Structure formats: C-alpha cells, structure tokens
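Fold it.
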Amino acid sequence: MASPFAASTSQLGSGTIALILLPPSTSTLSTLTYTYPLKLLPSSMHTLPHAPHLVYLIFLLTYGGGLVGGDAISVSITLAPSTRLALVTQGSTKLFKSSGPDVVSRQSLEVKVGKGAGLCYLPDPTQPFSESRYEQKQVFEVEEGGSVAVLDWVSEGRRARGEVWGLERWVGRNEVWSVSGEGGIKLMLRDNVVLDAQMSGGKEGLVGSMDGLGVFGTLILKGPLFEGLGKFFLDEFRLLTRIGARNWGDAANVPVLSKGEINRVARHKLEKVAGVLWTAASVRGLVLVKFGASQVEGARKWLGSVIKEERSIQTDFGEGALIALRD
C-alpha cells in the first residue's frame, strides 16, 4: 500500500540552523533541522545586557560520538544581522576505521554571517582512529561587521591503545570570504591541512613528521567581536621569551610583576611542560593562530588560559561557548 505521506527530501546527515532578529532586538531560532547521524541540540542561552540580548548555544553531535567510514554530515548555518551563535561539541569527534581507500568520512560546514552577527565555533578535536580516512571543508561568508572564531584541531588518536598518528588520511580546509554591501565576495583566507600516511617520508612515516606532537590545531579570528582576542594573541606572541632576553637566574634582576605578567610567566611554564609550540599572524584582516602540543590536555589548558584571560568570548557568548576548553 502506498504511503499517505509525501516522500522525504532530507538528505542523511544534513542539518540547518538559522537565526533571525525579531523586534525590538531579540535573536530567535527560526530554523533547526537535522537527520541521522547528525544531531543539533540547543542548550541554555546566554543573556546579554544589550542587543541582541540572547546568544544561542547549540551542540553539534553525531550518534555514537563519531563518524563511521563512509558517513557524511553537512551543516548549513545562516546568521541574520546582529544575531549570535555559539556552536560546540560534547566531546571529541571519533573517526572510525575505514574499510578501504574509497571509504571516506566527510564533514562540511557552510556559514553565512550577517552584518554585526557573530559565530563562536570552538569544538573538541577530531580523534582519528587507526586506518581512518576523513575530509572536512568549512566555508564562512562574512558580511562587513560580522565576526567569526573558528577552532579546528586534530589529535594523534587513541594513545592508550598505542595508536599514534595511525590514520591513513586527514584533510581539513577552512575558507573565509568577505561579503561586501554590494554583494561582492572576496576570498580572505584559505587554510589547508593534509595529514597523509602515504605522503610522509622517512622510516617513521607520519609519526616522524609530527615530531612528537600529539595534537595540531588552527584558530581563526575575524571581526570586531574577536578583535581584542586577536590582538591579545599577537601581543602575547611578540612577548614570548627569546634566548638571551632576560637572565632569570639572577634574582636581583627579576622585577615586580603585574598580574598580566604573572599569568604570562605561568603560561610560559605550561608551554614548556606541555610541549606547546605556537605562532600567530595577522593575515588580511584576520588573526591566524597555529599551535601544537605533546598531548590534547596540554593544548586545551594552554588555549583555555589565553582565551579565558582575555575574556571577550565569555562576555559576548557566555561560558558555555568554552566547554571544549574546560579544565
């Protein structure tokens, strides 16, 4: 017997989020859809003392906490002018073993950010299992005055099970486009990361290429909401201790330190203990931060210490936006 219901047009693994601004100035979730194996779950909202008053917090999840070989998820996000969204995950996205070279897990994210709107996307790292294959593409179209903060990081895998960069292939691409008021669009940044076991030279393969790093990541900051955080990263990078810059062995030469300097000294010690390496640069109006560490927890603590000290994300998006950087 034929079904009385219309055939579904939804694609597996697809999701849509849309925020609009209702009068007088309140953000409202106008669209939220998702299909298996993707889940998009709204959580508690952060209230601002000024327009747009509400910041939505949404969890991006998958059934089973990861992607089986061949799974594909695709998320489309539209933020109307002056709206704000914090997008987070509940834990690392596990990338399970692929059954063959043509069986690839994929994830795509397409985001349109209106004038004065803001997206804060700080997920947990992806965790590729041994022999996994994964490709990811994230595209952000940002109107003048719009803001985005995007964290994209990948770990070595299941260290406890002896999986150290045992993946077959991991590809990540991030694109940031600037949209003018006349509708023109201009590419501002295209950042590609390719980890491929077959392309890594030397006897140790990919493990040798990573040179002791257990996690590698990228942080992209654009727009007025993240201008202060971007400047903070650039200033901290300029103030990294250089060889011969100060004789720390002579107590008489150590000045009285401000609170910011005390935090910086503690962070430098953390960087040394956790094996953190990082750099920051201003690129066509964006700030691009690259970092690595010997283990995920070290990178999490370091990145969290910088962002939490500067405080603009907590103020403009709420503490929930930083769940991936929890201590």
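Confidence is low (pLDDT under 50) at residues 247-251.
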